[in-house]
């Protein structure tokens, strides 16, 4: 769908320079998604892996973040291999709803209620980022926290349009459950893509 150089705005790598590659196509369809235009892959031009890596290499940062849509709807072995060969650290942001492919330095799993992650990705996740849209999402987050590895970083992130309502609840929840950390969409506060 698009690719651009910016900073990672959320989660464990928040604040790092990153080249984002947003792939078209999503079969999860969260109603609060902030990139619904990514859902239909046919609306976006295809690019070669060589072109993507060449464009990413024009920038000094060496963190490549593959996101979507749902990036795992695509077979990602060749893309991640080419990025790593060019010196990039590869990160993915995924709901985990499709089979894992690619070679990853960091897997950010953000499970969605609309289509559950496949069990095989849970132990491989380096980061669990749960979007909090309503109070029941805390209990749902704990169900996934119990299934990831003990070394997995745990984040609660307010859904952007409900930040004012959910952030105070998340803060109280983290104070009572300190295994969790707060993730905010910092890029939206500082107006970068």
TrEMBL record:
Residues 13-193 form the Radical SAM core domain. GO terms for biological process: tRNA queuosine(34) biosynthetic process. Its EC number is 4.3.99.3. Binds 1 [4Fe-4S] cluster. The cluster is coordinated with 3 cysteines and an exchangeable S-adenosyl-L-methionine. Binds 1 S-adenosyl-L-methionine per subunit. Pfam families: Radical_SAM. Keywords: 4Fe-4S, Iron, Iron-sulfur, Lyase, Magnesium, Metal-binding, Queuosine biosynthesis, S-adenosyl-L-methionine. GO terms for molecular function: 4 iron, 4 sulfur cluster binding; carbon-nitrogen lyase activity; magnesium ion binding; S-adenosyl-L-methionine binding. Its cofactor is Mg(2+); [4Fe-4S] cluster; S-adenosyl-L-methionine. PROSITE patterns: RADICAL_SAM. [4Fe-4S] cluster binds at residues 26, 30, 33. Pathway: Purine metabolism; 7-cyano-7-deazaguanine biosynthesis. S-adenosyl-L-methionine binds at residues 32-34, 69, 110-112. It comes from the Bacteria. SUPFAM superfamilies: Radical SAM enzymes. Coiled coil: none annotated. Substrate binds at residues 7-9, 22, 67, 193. It is an enzyme of class 4 (lyase). It catalyses: 6-carboxy-5,6,7,8-tetrahydropterin + H(+) = 7-carboxy-7-carbaguanine + NH4(+). The keyword Nucleus does not apply. Homodimer. Belongs to the radical SAM superfamily. 7-carboxy-7-deazaguanine synthase family. Catalyzes the complex heterocyclic radical-mediated conversion of 6-carboxy-5,6,7,8-tetrahydropterin (CPH4) to 7-carboxy-7-deazaguanine (CDG), a step common to the biosynthetic pathways of all 7-deazapurine-containing compounds. This is 7-carboxy-7-deazaguanine synthase. The lineage of its organism: Bacteria, Pseudomonadati, Bacteroidota, Chitinophagia, Chitinophagales. The gene is queE.
């Amino acid at each position: 769908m698009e690719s651009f150089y910016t900073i990672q705005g959320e989660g464990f790598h928040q604040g790092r320079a990153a080249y984002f590659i947003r792939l078209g196509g999503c079969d999860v369809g969260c109603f609060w998604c902030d990139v619904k235009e990514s859902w239909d892959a046919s609306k976006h031009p295809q690019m070669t892996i060589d072109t993507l890596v060449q464009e990413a290499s024009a920038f000094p940062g060496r963190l490549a973040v593959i996101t979507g849509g749902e990036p795992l709807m695509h077979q990602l072995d060749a893309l991640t291999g080419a990025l790593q060969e060019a010196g990039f650290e590869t990160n993915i942001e995924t709901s985990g709803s499709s089979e894992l492919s690619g070679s990853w330095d960091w897997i950010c799993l953000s499970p969605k209620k609309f289509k559950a992650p496949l069990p095989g990705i849970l132990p491989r996740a380096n980061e669990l980022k749960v979007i909090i849209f309503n109070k029941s999402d805390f209990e749902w987050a704990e169900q996934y926290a119990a299934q990831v590895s003990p070394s997995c970083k745990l984040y609660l992130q307010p859904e952007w349009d409900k930040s004012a309502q959910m952030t105070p609840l998340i803060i109280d929840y983290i104070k009572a459950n300190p295994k969790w950390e707060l993730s905010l969409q910092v890029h939206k506060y500082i107006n970068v893509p």
